[in-house]
């Protein structure tokens, strides 16, 4: 029988349908050392909004981190989630490195540090040799996935891999032939979220962090040699139509969810249009629905709230947030509007959508 989400281990925290956000790595402004307290704060903030956690990707400046720093980021995030009682929330961690050997080593260490899945991008340093060598790329993912103790996601992002662009035929071959490959992150998408993503991507990671600082009071700087965004460029970004569109959508959904929380607190049943009715018991929401074959999602991209105690939906729950990118309104903040649409990962501010059980073999497409 085909495996679900990899074969080298049975994940204790399985992937669930929903939105997964690439988390920035935070640095202290003067020393450029890791800012672990801010990282932990942000991870908990994101998880409470029912958004999945992805560490050490492009947005996480993995290329700027030493192997030891990557492991510290993963360990710290796992500690933060557990300390908040979010024990069942999985972590996806980027383990792509310059060589097959180093990628395998990082994958093993990431698993020991608390990562449940790895996401791997091919190294772009030798693009001239690899970009047109399908056999070499396939061998790379075969060797990595076979040696990794946790399931592996393929990450296809030409902009961060020197132009290496794996076509759908190659990705499908690997999905069907490599049993420990559990999914793929693609660089495709459209719509309001993707437009905002692309707009902010023009300013790079610095633009995302500038927006976070503006909206949430933390974000900080990139690790050098990346330069911070000037305030003039940031203010221009802030009033761009794509940015104001996504913020308008966020406010609408914020109001809708605020009203929903008020109704739940008062014990008012709330139909959601899918035959699902939510009621409240002692301030905790309950969804009267039958679980899907893939299970109830802790990171549902619809407006259906989970009844799990680890996904708060009471009036004290945090409001929907903008994940890693302050202009990428993801997960609960987008509600049903994100369902069935790829998110944009051609920029550094993408979100991730997982569709558990796609095609034979129950692979995940993100």
Q: Explain this structure to me?
A:
The protein has an 8-stranded mixed barrel with strand order 1-2-3-4-5-6-11-10, surrounded by 5 helices. The chain has helices spanning 36-48, 67-83, 100-113, 127-130, 134-147, 168-177, 192-201, 204-216, 231-238, 241-265, and strands spanning 18-22, 52-55, 91-94, 117-120, 152-155, 181-185, 270-271, 277-281, 284-288, 352-358, 363-365. The protein is of the alpha/beta class. Helices cover 35% and strands 13% of the residues. Mean pLDDT is 75; it is low at 273-362. The protein contains 10 helices and 11 strands. Strand 3 (91-94), helix 3 and strand 4 (117-120) form a beta-alpha-beta unit.
Query: What is the H/E order?
Result: EHEHEHEHHEHEHHHHEEEEE
Percentage of residues in strands: 5-15%
Shape: globular
Give the total of beta strands: 11
Rg computed from alpha carbons, rounded to a whole number of angstroms: 20 Å
Average of pLDDT? 75
How are the strands of the largest sheet arranged? 1-2-3-4-5-6-11-10
| C-alpha end-to-end distance | 23 Å
Q: Report the structural category.
A: alpha/beta
List the helices and strands and how they pair.
Elements: E1 18-22, H1 36-48, E2 52-55, H2 67-83, E3 91-94, H3 100-113, E4 117-120, H4 127-130, H5 134-147, E5 152-155, H6 168-177, E6 181-185, H7 192-201, H8 204-216, H9 231-238, H10 241-265, E7 270-271, E8 277-281, E9 284-288, E10 352-358, E11 363-365
Parallel strand pairs: 1-2, 2-3, 3-4, 4-5, 5-6, 6-11
Antiparallel strand pairs: 1-10, 7-8, 8-9, 10-11
Helix pairs in contact: 1-2, 2-3, 3-5, 7-10
């Amino acid at each position: 029988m085909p495996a679900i989400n990899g074969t080298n281990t049975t994940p204790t925290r399985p992937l669930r349908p929903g939105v997964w956000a690439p988390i920035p790595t935070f640095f202290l402004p003067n020393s450029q050392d890791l800012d672990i307290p801010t990282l932990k704060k942000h991870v908990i903030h994101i998880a409470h909004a029912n958004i999945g956690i992805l560490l050490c990707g492009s947005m996480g400046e993995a290329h700027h981190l030493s192997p030891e720093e990557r492991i510290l980021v993963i360990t710290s995030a796992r500690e933060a989630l557990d300390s908040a009682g979010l024990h069942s929330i999985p972590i996806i961690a980027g383990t792509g490195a310059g060589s097959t050997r180093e990628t395998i080593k990082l994958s093993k260490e990431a698993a020991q540090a608390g990562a449940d899945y790895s996401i791997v991008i091919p190294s772009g340093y030798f693009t001239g040799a690899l970009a047109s060598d399908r056999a070499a790329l396939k061998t790379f993912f075969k060797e990595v996935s076979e040696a990794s103790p946790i399931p592996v996601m393929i990450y296809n992002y030409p902009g961060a891999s020197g132009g290496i662009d794996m076509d759908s035929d190659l990705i499908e071959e690997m999905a069907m032939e490599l049993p420990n490959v559990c999914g793929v992150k693609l660089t495709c998408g459209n719509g309001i979220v993707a437009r905002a993503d692309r707009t902010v991507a023009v300013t790079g990671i610095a633009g995302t962090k500038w927006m976070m600082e503006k909206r949430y009071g933390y974000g900080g700087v990139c690790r050098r040699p990346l330069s911070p965004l000037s305030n003039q460029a940031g203010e221009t970004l802030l009033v761009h139509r794509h940015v104001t569109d996504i913020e308008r959508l966020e406010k609408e959904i914020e109001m809708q969810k605020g009203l929903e929380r008020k109704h739940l607190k008062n014990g008012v049943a709330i139909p959601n249009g899918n035959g699902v009715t939510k009621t409240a018991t002692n301030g905790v929401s309950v969804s009267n629905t039958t679980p899907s074959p893939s299970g109830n999602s802790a990171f549902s991209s619809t407006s259906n709230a989970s009844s799990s105690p680890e996904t708060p939906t009471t009036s004290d729950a945090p409001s929907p947030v903008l994940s890693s990118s302050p202009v990428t309104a993801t997960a609960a903040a987008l509600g049903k509007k994100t369902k069935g649409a790829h998110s944009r990962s051609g920029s550094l501010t993408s979100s991730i959508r997982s569709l558990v059980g796609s095609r034979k073999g129950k692979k995940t497409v993100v």
